[in-house]
Amino acid sequence: MVSWNSVPLEITYQVLGWISFVAWSVSFYPQVILNFRRKSVVGLNFDFVLLNLTKHSSYMIYNVVLFFSSTVQQQYFQKYGRDQMIPVAANDVAFSMHAVLLTIITLFQIAIYERGVQKVSKISMAIVSVVWLAAAVCFFVALPNHSWLWLINFFNAIQVIMTLIKYIPQAIMNFRRKSTDGFSIGNILLDFLGGCTNYSQMIVQSIDQNSWVNFYGNIGKTLLSLV
Q: Does the entry feature the keyword Chloroplast, yes or no (predicted)?
């Protein structure tokens, strides 16, 4: 694997990455704490949470496999060149694993706290079912030729699609209620900070390597930050 050319840029990359990790990870807690204090999840859209779990689960699969699997890393180098760096950092792995855990906790709160007449929509359930069915099909397609990079890129695509649509149910619900009561603004502010620092981290890596491959080599991370 190629090494860093500049120590200051490497340090900046690590600092930005862990700021992003802290911001994105802490962003889950305001909502969890708000639900706990109110003993209610009224105002929190259940479709948002379900789509979020699918998004973070697929993102975790992508990050963990690319970060830890030497086989997949070799496939990445064969596709993009051995002079490129793996576009997944330790903070990406830590964040995605933490995100899955906190989203599961939020789903548990939905199960035990007052939720009024709210429920998961049939549309969201259908979307999630189709996504995981497609992932299962892709696994068996990739299996004969061990096309694991292609497979995890599919999971990366899933997380991008989920990121694009997951906010829509919550935004519509806020509009209809003319209220954001029950939905924590802390989640959004920290999410925004995490996106900015994560994107900046990728810029720093590109400057150091004098290459923009990491932007399209990990298009999921790029779009995640921008969205």
A: no
Q: Rounded to an integer, what distance in angstroms lies between the CA atom of residue 160 and that of residue 80?
A: 21
Question: What is the value of pTM for the model shown?
Answer: 0.84
Q: Letter for the amino acid at 168? A: I
Cα dist. 114→43, 111, 138, 176, 217 in Å?
11, 8, 39, 20, 44
Residue 171, token pair as written in the block: 């935004």
Q: Is 205 exposed, middle or buried (0-12, 13-18, 19+ CB in 10 A)?
A: buried
Domain range annotation of the chain:
1-30+182-226, 41-180
How far apart CA 211 and CA 130 sit, in angstroms, is: 36
In the structure encoding, which two tokens stand for residue 104, read together?
């599961």
Nearest-CA neighbor of 153 among 221, 226, 74, 82? 221
Q: How far is CA 22 from CA 26, 89, 159, in A?
A: 6, 14, 20
Q: Radius of gyration of the chain from Cα atoms?
A: 19
Instruction: Give the mean pLDDT per block of 10 residues along the chain (227 residues).
Output: 83 91 91 96 96 96 95 92 83 91 97 94 97 97 96 93 93 95 92 91 88 76 79
pLDDT at position 81: 85
